[in-house]
Amino acid sequence: MKLTVLYDNTALQPDPQPDWGFACAIELAESNVLFDTGTEAQILLGNMDKLGFAPRDFDLVAISHDHHDHTGGLAAVLAGNPDVTVVIPSRFSRDFKDRVAATGAKLAEIDDAGEIAPGLYTSGQMGDGIIEQAVVMDSADGLVVVTGCAHPGVVEMVTQAKAALDGDIALVMGGFHLMATPVAGVEDIISRLQRLGVQRAAPCHCTGDAAIEVFAERYGDDFIKIGVGWKSEFAARP
Q1: Is 238 inside a domain boundary?
Q2: Looking at the whole model, is its pTM more than 0.85?
Q3: Tens of pLDDT along 47-62?
Q4: What is the number of domains present in the chain?
Q5: Pick from 224, 197, 194: which is nearest to 142 by CA?
Q6: Residues 231 and 53: beta-carbon distance below 8 Å
Q7: Which residues contact residue 102 at a Cβ distance below 8 angstroms, ignoring those fewer than 6 apart?
Q8: Domain that includes residue 207, residue range
Q9: How far apart are CA 230 and CA 50, in angstroms?
Q10: In angstroms, how far is CA 150 from the centroid of its own chain?
Q11: Cα(137)–Cα(132) distance, rounded to whole angstroms?
C-alpha cells in the first residue's frame, strides 16, 4: 500500500511542479485510486508523468469536495481514462454529476462510511455547506486518513473515520483548512487529535504555513513534511 502526493503547494523534489491544490495517488493490492485532481490539468498530468503515473493507471477517482483546486484536473484524467469510476458524495451538485456522466465515466455516489476499494474506505459525506469526504486506508499500522481540505473540521473527519472503522489512527494527512485559525485554535485542534490517538500528522495544502509550524512543534518526530513527490509505503493489514 503506497501513497504519493501528486499535487500540492510545495514540492519535495526538483522536477514536479508545485501549485495551489491537492491530489494523491493511493496504490492498493488490488487497485489504484486517485484522490482529488488539483487545479491545473497540465500540472497534474506533468507531475503524474514525472512520478510514474498516467490517468489509465487508476481504477477509481475519489473527489473530496467540489472546489476547483481539487477538481481542476478531473476532465483531463477522464479524457485519458474514460472507463474509470468517480466516487463522490451524493450531495454534490447535479451540474457536477452531469459533467462527469457526459464523459462516459461511471459515477458511484456515497452517503455513509464504507469500503470503496479493498483496503480503502470513505469517511462518508460530511458538512452542511461544503460537502466533503475523506478517504481512509486500512493498513497494518492503523488507519491512514487523507483529507482534501477538511472543511467539516479535521477533528470531526478523523472522529467519524475512527468510529466507522473502529481502529487506531496511524496518520492523518492532507489539507486541514487552518489558514485563518489563530495559534491557540490550532493548538486546541492538535490536542483533540492527540486525544483521539492520532499518532502522526502530515498537514499540507490549505493548512497554512503558520499552522503547519505548530503541528511540527507539537508532533515533533511524529510530524511529517509532505509535498509533491512525497511517497510512503504501508504494510497491508493481514
Answers
A1: no
A2: yes
A3: 999 999 999 999 999 9
A4: 1
A5: 197
A6: no
A7: none
A8: 2-233
A9: 12
A10: 9
A11: 17
